Structures are given as C-alpha cells and as structure tokens.
C-alpha cells in the first residue's frame, strides 16, 4: 500500500523537453516510474529518447491523458508559466498534479489553489507543491526529484516541508524503509498539507508510524497538532527546522518567516508535544525517536 502514488500510476511530464524536465524524467524512469509521455505545445508530435525509452510529446495535457491514460502530471516549467500549466492539467482532469517549480509567484499559486477548490475542478485533482521535491513510493514510483536510491519500501510514512530534510530522514531510516514520502513544499500557499498527508497515512494499513517535518513560519504545524490529537492513532514523531532563526528574518522558504512568538520553532514544538508527538532537536535525534518506536512495534 501507499498514498497518492503507486506502481500503476501513469505519469506525464509537463516540460519534458527542457533541461530539468528531461534530466529528472530520466531519473524517474530509473526509479521504475511508469512515464508515458510529456507535454510541450511547441514540440507536439515529436518524441524524446530518455533512459532507453521513446517518450511521445503531446500538445496538451488533455491530449496526453486521452492517448496514454495518464493520471499523474509532474510540472517542470518556468515560474511564469506554472499557473497556466496547472490550470491546464486541472481542466484536463488529472488525478495528481506534482509541481516541482520553485519561485512561482504567490498570487499565481493562490489562484491555482482557489481553482482547485472551485467547481471547475470536477475531477478533484490533488496538487502537491509548488517548490517541492514531489512524492516517492519506494520501489514502485517517483513523481519528482527525490533520489530513489536512498531508501527502500517499509512501514514509515513521511511528510515534510523541506526537500533536503526529506532526503536526510529517508537516509537515516533506510533500515526500516518508507511506504510513501511526500515533500509538500515550503511556500506560503501549497496544495497538499501536513493534515492531508497525515489523514492519508492514518488510513493506509501498511503505514505503521509517521514522521512529520515542519519549519518556522505560519501555523501549519499547530493545525496539524490539533488534527493529530483528534484523528491520528499511529505514533508520530516530528522535527521543526529553524530553532536558530533570528526573529523576523525569512529563512530559505518563502513561507518560513516568524512574527513575534507566532510561527517559532519552539511554539510548534510545544504544540506537537502537547498532543503526544515526540519532537527531536535535530533531524538525527528525530530519526532516533522513530527508530525507538519502530523497535517497539
């Protein structure tokens, strides 16, 4: 079992002919992903050779889905064109939309988010990102840029705002393995949230425990804590990046800005611990907390 992505997922890549798109499509193929084509309106009707496969290039997401049966799209297009690419995929009825692009204007993401909530989203498209590493179900499928060699399949679910911390946590717990790992992105507005992932992991019978990685800024972790208290029965460990961040300074991710006591790492740590989530002071300590839980299960 897994959440959102599995070996049967058929993936198209919006921007497959670009530098990043072609590079990471090759790596997704090496991870075992079922890539069925790509989209580039200017190169419709052509093909690209990637990792020993011939990938057809379609003019639109709708055409690609009709011809291939694709149900996942990974977006590797420049920030200025990301909103249009997302709207096109939603209109086509794609099931899962994974937006890797960073630097997308917040207003554009807000408009896409609003579109996802509207009646226009008949198919109920789920978006992950933007500004994220995507999603990996080890040994089955990768939709994004997570290195597929760092961990295999296992019983831990992982949801993280940070890409690099996703990779580190997978590596540190590779002896146990993961059902699915999702990097949800660190922008102020994102598609899939900690709460969405927590609910999916709770419902997945193969996921036995969950690691949740947050960071300073906003109140997503506090809201996740409230959700865990009322809805999650599986053990959860957490880590909050940014304990040493100076007040009022944006740190890396656009969403990681602290105002007064709101959004601080300490406030998030306390909210999580209040509902029984063990929170590590470092990623390695967090991994050790999960290791103890797994040994006891």
From TrEMBL:
UniProt domain CoA-binding: residue ranges: 4-104
PROSITE patterns: SUCCINYL_COA_LIG_1, SUCCINYL_COA_LIG_2
The organism's place on the tree of life at top rank: Bacteria
Residues that, per the record, bind CoA: 17-20, 43, 100-102
Pathway: Carbohydrate metabolism; tricarboxylic acid cycle; succinate from succinyl-CoA (ligase route): step 1/1
Keyword list, A-Z: Ligase, Nucleotide-binding, Tricarboxylic acid cycle
Positions of the catalytic residues: 253 (tele-phosphohistidine intermediate)
Catalytic activity: succinate + ATP + CoA = succinyl-CoA + ADP + phosphate; GTP + succinate + CoA = succinyl-CoA + GDP + phosphate
Keyword Nucleotide-binding listed: yes
This protein's record includes keyword Oxidoreductase: no
One GO molecular-function entry: succinate-CoA ligase (ADP-forming) activity
GO biological process: tricarboxylic acid cycle
Binding site for substrate: 167
A single GO cellular-component term on record: cytosol
Enzyme nomenclature, EC number: 6.2.1.5
Pfam families, per database record: CoA_binding, Ligase_CoA
Role this protein plays: Succinyl-CoA synthetase functions in the citric acid cycle (TCA), coupling the hydrolysis of succinyl-CoA to the synthesis of either ATP or GTP and thus represents the only step of substrate-level phosphorylation in the TCA. The alpha subunit of the enzyme binds the substrates coenzyme A and phosphate, while succinate binding and nucleotide specificity is provided by the beta subunit.
Family according to the record: Belongs to the succinate/malate CoA ligase alpha subunit family.
PANTHER family listed in its UniProt record: SUCCINATE--COA LIGASE [ADP_GDP-FORMING] SUBUNIT ALPHA, MITOCHONDRIAL, SUCCINYL-COA LIGASE SUBUNIT ALPHA
NCBIfam families: PRK05678.1, sucCoAalpha
Self-association and partners: Heterotetramer of two alpha and two beta subunits.
The protein, known as: Succinate--CoA ligase [ADP-forming] subunit alpha
Source species of the chain: Nocardioides bruguierae
């Amino acid at each position: 079992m897994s959440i959102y992505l599995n070996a049967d997922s058929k993936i198209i890549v919006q921007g497959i002919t670009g530098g990043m798109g072609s590079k990471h499509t090759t790596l997704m193929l090496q991870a075992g992903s079922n890539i069925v084509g790509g989209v580039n309106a200017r190169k419709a009707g052509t093909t690209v050779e990637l990792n020993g496969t011939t990938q057809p290039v379609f003019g639109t997401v709708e055409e690609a889905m009709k011809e291939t049966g694709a149900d996942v799209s990974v977006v590797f297009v420049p920030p200025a064109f990301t909103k249009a690419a997302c709207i096109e995929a939603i209109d086509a009825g794609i099931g899962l939309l994974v937006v890797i692009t960073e630097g997308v204007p917040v207003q554009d993401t807000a408009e896409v988010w609003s579109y996802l909530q509207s009646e226009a989203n008949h198919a109920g498209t789920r978006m992950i990102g933007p500004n994220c590493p995507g999603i990996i179900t080890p040994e089955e499928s990768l939709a994004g840029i997570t290195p597929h060699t760092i961990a295999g399949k296992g019983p831990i679910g992982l949801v993280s705002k940070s890409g690099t911390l996703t990779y580190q946590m997978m590596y540190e717990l590779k002896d146990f393995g993961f059902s699915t790992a999702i990097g949800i992105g660190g922008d102020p507005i994102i598609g899939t949230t900690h709460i969405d992932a927590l609910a999916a992991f709770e419902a997945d019978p193969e996921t036995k425990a969950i690691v949740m990685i947050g960071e300073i800024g906003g109140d997503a972790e506090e809201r996740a804590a409230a959700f865990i208290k009322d809805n999650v029965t599986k053990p959860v460990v957490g880590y909050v990046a940014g304990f040493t961040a100076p007040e009022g300074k944006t740190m890396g991710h656009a969403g990681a800005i602290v105002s007064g006591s709101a959004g601080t790492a300490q406030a998030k740590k306390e909210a999580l611990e209040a509902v029984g989530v063990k929170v590590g002071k470092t990623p390695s300590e967090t991994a050790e907390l999960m290791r103890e839980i797994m040994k006891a299960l």
